[in-house]
Design goal:
By secondary structure, the chain is α/β, with parallel strands linked by helices. β8 (about 135-140), α5 and β9 form a beta-alpha-beta unit. The protein has helices at about 40, 45-55, 80-90, 120-130, 140-145, 160-165, 180-185, 200-215, 225-235, 245-255, 280-285, 295, 310-315, 320-325, 365-375, 380-385, 395-400, 410-425, 440-445, 450-465, 465-485, 490-500; strands spanning about 1-10, 15-25, 30-35, 65-70, 105, 110, 115, 135-140, 155, 215-220, 270, 300-305, 325-330, 335-340, 345-350, 385-390. Helix content is about 40%, strand content about 15%.
Length: about 500
Amino acid sequence: MLSRIYGAALHGIDALKVAVEVDIASGLPETFMVGRPEGAVRESKVRIRAALRNCGYPFPYKRITINLAPADVRKEGSGYDLPMAVGIAAAQGVVVSSRLGDCLLVGELSLDGAVKPVRGALPIAVAVKREGLASLIVPRANSAEAAVVQGIDVYGVDSLAEVVDFLNGEREIEPTRVDLARLFHSHAVHDADLSDVRGQPHVKRALEVAAAGSHNVLLMGPPGSGKTMLAKRLATILPDLTLPEALETTKIHSVAGVLDGRALVAVRPFRAPHHTISDAGLVGGGSVPKPGEASLAHNGVLFLDEAPEFRRHVLEVLRQPLEDGRITVARAAGSIDYPASVMLVAAMNPCPCGFFGDPQKECRCTPMQIARYRSRVSGPLLDRIDIQVEVPAVAYEALASHAPGEPSEAVRERVNQARRVQVERFGEAGIHANARMSARDVRRYCRVDPAGEQLLENAINRLGLSARAYVRILKVGRTIADLAGAEAIQSAHIAEAIQYRSLDRPLV
């Protein structure tokens, strides 16, 4: 007897419909799986046998052949347990339903027949809608996430028996519905606020400029000056996350299995990997490529604390993603493209002991030690960081002050206004921030008045800036002008942008 039911395979942050074909024939009792199943899929026959028995359904002692089509796509994960179990039941006549041809199932089975959650419910729901299927059966823990996709019926289930009864029409299950607007609003809450930070007004200003233009930032200062605290609050002043951005970000987190029960990622992500991370952990990889921290920070902030402590080759792999906003992970089995449009925020001490330039504590590092320490972050990577700002130790008066700081909401409103100007400026070009301007866009939109040109010439001659650093200054100057509501970039805007190149100035 033959049955066909549908499951799904994850490929990057997307999903493909998989036809699960089950054939039961006379012969020695054995189960064969074809269609490039990986280890977890091959092991599922043990779970399926126990689940069917413990739910009171027969398991045939015959020759069982399970084909997962298309056969040229790798199948991995435990999400095929449920469709294969239902397929075996259907091939025996236990499930007799006209719904099988218009329904997709995904879920992991425990030995008692309980259905456990899986990764990638949201991209699977998108695939169901794209393929024109009517419904999706998922573990109940994944139902709210999948129901974010409108136009299909999503049924959350707890057990194999519940699925069989539902398909046979012996049990009714209400489809899961979510109010997307209310869900998006309720999840768009930040746990921190910029007003928590005492002092550091010039650093807050630099972060506002960075957020307005999506510029990468380097914070350099002694231990305890608030670099990490400031970096964590940068995400709270970034422009509001749009629904398409939220869905794309949620798909990445869903595939990686880090949604933590959320149905939707409604705030810009903040990822802070430890400095012992590998290059595959940072940009993605593995025998079956998974998204790395850079992709998990897509549409948000990637924070590298103590940047010089990261292995040099790990930092260097960020150079291409910072330019392109995407990461291509190539393996022998194929290549996968992951989005990685992030704001990079790096933090470092000014020297090995951390007190170079501190008026209160003496630095005992030699110029050679300082230069060697700073060289751990390569010049090409530093050139891709638009804003480099010093974060001095906070004075007691600022720490003890009870005056309320400016809240993130007020700063975010100015940032949103500046971003609206940029979106209107670039129109159909698909650019949403000044940091993404091409060389042609810079020539067109970053014209500077004569006084500003003179400032730029002096800075380049004295500091020996690279061509990339020159372009970065123009982009930052354009953002500062947008925040000020100015059409042209003026000398004051260029002067402020030059001040954000701390590491280009010589050691004194």
